[in-house]
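REQUEST FORM: STRUCTURE PREDICTION
Request ID: SP-0412
Submitted by: Lab K.M.
Chain count: 1
Length (residues): 468
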Amino acid sequence: MSKTPTSPKPGDQEPGIRYVNLYEAEDKVYTRRIIGFYQKLRRYTGLPLILGFLLMPWLIIDGRPAMLFDLPARQFHILWLTFRPQDAMYLAWLLLIAAFLLFTVTVLVGRVWCGFTCPQTVWTQMFIWAEHLCQGDRNKRMKLDAQPWNTEKVLRKGATQSIWLLISLITGLTFIGYFVPIRELIVGLVTLEVHPAAAFWVFFFMGATYLNAGFMREQVCKYMCPYARFQSVMYDQDTLAVLYNHHRGEQRGPRKANEDYRAKGMGDCIDCSWCVQVCPVDIDIREGLQAECIDCGLCVDACNQVMDKMSYPRGLISFTSEDAIAGGRTRILRPRLFGYGAILLLMIGVFIYSIGTRAPVGLDVIRDRGVNMYRLSGDMVQNVYTLRIHNMDRGVHHYDVQVHGDFPFSVQGYRQYPVEEGEILTVPIRVQVPRDELDRTQTNITFELQSLENPEIRAVRNSTFIGP
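STATUS: Completed
RESULT:
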């Protein structure tokens, strides 16, 4: 006879199993401020990301923003390159490279992307800095939230919210500055002449930043980020991650500084909970590897400080592998890492080669497929073609068209029109050959397009010529 499962009571929970009520609001996370190697490393990796994000829309290259996604014109300007819808292959290729780069890094050092360079982490770190600045460290913030509203609480909370809103506004403006020239965007907002759609998206992303980094924080990492769900398939016994050495730390418990705790069967962990207090996603690393852990290393810094105070060796919590915890050694070079790395290098090489050899002009040749596949004009045989010339270079070009084949072909009805940057010129032309020179009903011909301003800019396309 089967038993009906019952809901576990708090006192009945099995060791190592944590029950979470998804319908119950989680407690607010108050992180302790810590100074250490990984905290400094997070700062040095986050600052370039922030500066790059803020400054890129302001940089000007060839009279335009260095990075501008001009959706109405269907042009993506990235540094000295311009991509259009027909270049979507490059975007797909770039996304694949980013995915395999993430896989390679994860196999090697776990979720360091999440802990050090993920925008959610970096912006949350800025918002927590504002809390520390205006409200103080962990204990002061807890006391401030517990006390009734008074002048001090209003001023401290108001200052925190003001900094949050300022960061969120700058973030929204900068993000939309990648789609609308940021100088025009700011002037338009100040003079109330900005397009309503641009204004809507500025305040939309301002609100999203304020909500995600100010209030949701660890909820994004725990429940919304898909990376936490599939990262485990890329981990193995040699993946470096933030791990607690339970062989050395157990049994935990408080003790005096000079006490012979080993004689009592205790480990190095004094159960101070600093590793939990500094964790931005509010987990206890001593419970083992968890999907929520972002490998930020703050618990490593906190534990090392406690070990220093107790005169114990550092490394109770460290970036290490499960093999090393078990007493073995970490194998950095292994087949999975070689596989991901080889594919990544190959894809990067193909991408760079494709970009380097990308022609700044596109040419499509369409032969007239009407009822009359060819025309007779006096002693000449003519075929009609439609040329689509796409100028993908920066600047205006005049293009010359020539036709090569086994017979003396010539081009009629073509003028060297000026083609603006990004313009697609569609022009019909006639290709003719003397009738007495043509000795077959079908022959291959080659169209060669060449810029008069820069002869190195050229395109070649093959087609067929039909005769009687």
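NOTES: Residues 151-176 form the longest helix (26 residues).
Reviewed by: T.R.
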